[in-house]
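Input record (one chain):
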Amino acid sequence: MKKLIILILVVTGINGLIYAGEGTENEKSHPNHLAVFIGATTNPEAEQTNFTLGIDYEYKVGEKTGIGVLGEAIFAEHKEIIIGIPLFYHLQKVKLFVAPGILSTTEEDDHETEKVIKGLVRVGTSFDIDVSGVSIAPTLSADIIDGNISLIYGIGIGKGF
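The corresponding structure, as predicted from the sequence alone:
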């Protein structure tokens, strides 16, 4: 599984380096970007895939760098909420990111429900496609939580301002 994640991230990064664009219109003229995410989260250890909705905001602090905030809801047996602070690096139309964050969920043990908060690190990439001033971004990321890896994949739809 780790080899697959690395392969996908490398191929997406190479694709961005080959693509000769100078960035999307959103990227060129707006330091702020707000997007919604629609996708899925696959947890290979639990052998399940769940619908995922999210939102993220990025403020570009430099030509190629940005910082932001993200929030996601994973609709598993017990809903999971993820909050993180991503650091972005732009390679033309490819965006690479790493985000320290937390996961909040509930777990059942002996018929008792307990709220659990765990630390995580998210690494990922997306490829920005500009369509009439709106960014469409196929996205792939991986969350590392307690040594386990979950894959998050889907589409981000956003707008620069």
